Each structure stands twice: as structure tokens, then as C-alpha cells.
Amino acid sequence: MVEFHPDPEALTRLAVGFDHEFADPTLLVRALQHRSWQAEVEAPESNERLEFLGDAVLGWIVADIAFTTFGDLPEGRLTDLRKSVVNAKALASLARQVNLGPALLLGRGEDTAGGRTKTSILSDAFEAVIGAIYLDAGPTVAYEKVKQLLLPAMHRALPNIDKLDAKTVLQERAARLGLQAPRYVVDSEGPDHAKTFTARVIVGKVEAVGTGPSKKNAEQVAAEGALGRLPEPTDG
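-> C-alpha cells emitted (236 positions)
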């Protein structure tokens, strides 16, 4: 049976996770309404509009935090730092941290298929809740909530930001070595809600393989492997 309201205990845990008491609790409930639930109960809307708003709010706040907190980083590294925390995998991890999954409103099929643990659903709902907080309490409160949740992750990511976009680094190195652009072949296995992707990259005479929970992640792992086998170009 499809639930019309989130579990009250799950909502309480979620409010504690975000450390925010909603003046308008309907905003939080709307942020939890997945489109599969909307279709089954014929609700007027899902959480997708709030997700759109939350995505923009997150982008603005994280960019501002990166700019003001990490003042010695150049523009490219600031961009990498923002990408390290504003992506589906990172946001889904935060969603699990604040106990978002149990509070979701899902259709029966999506719930049975493990929707409460899906990276895409969790990350989208996390953005929707941020959008709801922005509407409920304004930009200042939203800024503080995002900073509280994401700044620790930004500090953890900082030592590794040079490794974040291995595909771009590999493409640039291949060009400098006079090689053709890297070619990727990706396969997947497993059920839709828990697929494992395997990517094989070929650049020159070098091949490398990577696995991950998404096509993009597997390609990044493969690119990192290829970078370890390609020589550094010498200029001049």
C-alpha cells in the first residue's frame, strides 16, 4: 500500500539530521514526494520543482563557500572542489547521513526495487529538501545548513582534487604525447537498482580497466589506471 504521508518517526529523524524545524512542514513533505509516488496517488506534484530550486541553491552556496574559505585555490581547482561535493554520489552519501531514505514517499514498484537506497533518488531528494529549507527560512538559514553539512566534505576532498577529473587529464596527456583521444568501452551487470559498471580505456598501446557504481565512475577509475601507465610528456 502506498503511504500518503511519510512515517512520523522518519520525519523526526530527518529534521534532526538537517537540524531544521520547518515553519511550514508541508514543504518538507513535498520535498520527499518522488514522481513514482505522485503517479500512483495522483498527487498534484512531485519533488522535482523543489529539486530544481535546491540544485541552484546548492550550486550558489558551495561556490561561495569555496571562494571565501579556500582563497588560495585557482579557478580550476575551485571548480573541481565544488564538483567533489555537488554530485549525485556525494549528495546521496549526505542523504544517508541525515536519514533521508526512510522518510521518502515512493510508489510501490520503486520502493520494492530499493528506491530508498538509490543514489539518484537520494541525491535528488536531498536537493529538494535544501530547496524546501530555502523557501521555509530564507537564504541565510539555507546557507548555514549547507555549510554545516558540506564544508567538512570539502575539507576532506581538498587533498585529492587533482585526481577528480582523470578523464580530462588523460585526454590532455594523450594529446601532448601525440596519441589519439582515449576510447572507452563500458559494460554493466546486475539488477537495475544495483548495477556494477566496468569500463575499459584504450589510449595508444595502454589499456586499463575500472569498475564502479556508475558509468562515469568506472570511466574515471579506468582513466586513473591509464594515467599511471602513460609517461609524463616532456615539453620543448
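The chain has a mean pLDDT of 90.
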